[in-house]
Amino acid sequence: MTKPTVLHLIDCLFIGGGEMQMVDLLRRIDREKFRPLVGCLRKEGQLVPVLEQAGIPVEEFPVRGKLFYPHSIKEILRLARFMRRERVQIVQTQDLYSHLVGVPAALLARVPVVITNRLDLGHTMKQWHRRALKGLSFGIGHVMANSEGVRTMLLEVEKIDPAKIELIYNGVDLDQFPITPERKGPLPLAPEDRPIVVVANLWPVKGHEILLEAAVRVTAFYPNAKFVLVGTGAARRAILEERARALSVEKQVFFLGPRQDVPQILRQMEISVLPSLAEGFSNAILESMAAGLPMVATDVGGNREAIVEGETGFLVPPRDADTLADRILRLLGDRALAQRMGRAGRERIERTFSLQRMVEETERFYERLLQERGSGRRSADPKIKTDLSHAKVSP
């Protein structure tokens, strides 16, 4: 029996939460059951070689500029022909532009199962983005949400049919986060330092400015507190560095940029903080809890689905620097509480948010959809009547 081919379509493969979740899924998916492929609108990023080394082909479909320019239409047609040639039975799009490109191509290719991933609350979407997705909704068979917060947004804001929504939580590869008594890692921290980490790209929605305001209060009580910021964003970094200088905390704030050794960095930390103004379901929270760290995070999106208030960490209102500082200070002042919360967080990840659980749930979801569509093999056959053979498509 031929294994179903699953094509994941994504904008690019730089390190990010959604990108890492896709890569982890595809590296762990059962190759006896599924044949994974990846399509990129831009074949760029640190994760391209990771996929290729895992034996997962990565194809580029460079849709540039506006979606309905001639070049973009040609690439959509070429993508449709690729789907037909590879007998793709499941297309899963990962982000906004891959939705807008992948769904029309899948419809042209008559792919039987079309899934769109929704990983956040759409806080960066413009009105025309939502209208475009609404226009494509007839071609989207299912929407995969990664939290109840995202599911609620899809129901209440975008009016998605609840029967189309599947909730599968993100998962963490626990093997990358071994719990050891030693706090050794790549950063040159002194024994007396009290390190606090924020793993988040330097985007406005991540709330770094609020963190810097909280740092003023924290460092007044603990001058040896060190705020370690991990994440990409060169333009925003300059703005945040200037803000840190204005608040006189520049000597306690360290910008590390993008890193591929986050598990090792987390091993050196005492507390993990996420001051976001909006979230879908944060991988940074899951990874920090897997590393045995207590969390202080804003009560937005799916954060309360991961963090148990008062047990694995603290939830605070967004844009509230004083409360954020209070909770950080409480953990710095009570090491036993911080360690107890860290242990509880690790146990919660093991029970509920492991990568293995995510992979197994996704495999079952794929199998169910294929069964509902009669496995889709006939529709995916290249002999189907939709004729793309004469389309003028770039090779």
Structural account:
The protein is an alpha/beta fold and 395 residues long. The chain has two domains: 194 residues, Rossmann fold, CATH 3.40.50.2000; 179 residues, Glycogen Phosphorylase B (Rossmann fold, 3-Layer(aba) Sandwich). The protein has 15 helices and 13 strands. The longest helix is centred in the last third of the chain and has 18 residues. It starts with a strand and ends in a 15-residue tail after the last helix.
Q: Concise description?
A:
This protein is α/β, with parallel strands linked by helices and 395 residues long. It is 42% helix and 16% strand.
Main features:
alpha/beta, Rossmann fold, 7-stranded parallel sheet, 13 strands, 395 residues
Topology record:
Blueprint: E1 5-10, H1 17-28, E2 35-40, H2 47-53, E3 58-60, H3 70-85, E4 88-93, H4 96-109, E5 113-118, H5 127-136, E6 142-145, H6 148-156, E7 165-167, E8 194-199, H7 208-221, E9 225-230, H8 234-246, E10 253-257, H9 262-267, E11 271-274, H10 283-290, E12 295-298, H11 303-306, E13 313-316, H12 321-333, H13 335-352, H14 355-372, H15 377-380
Parallel strand pairs: 1-2, 1-4, 2-3, 4-5, 5-6, 6-7, 8-9, 8-11, 9-10, 11-12, 12-13
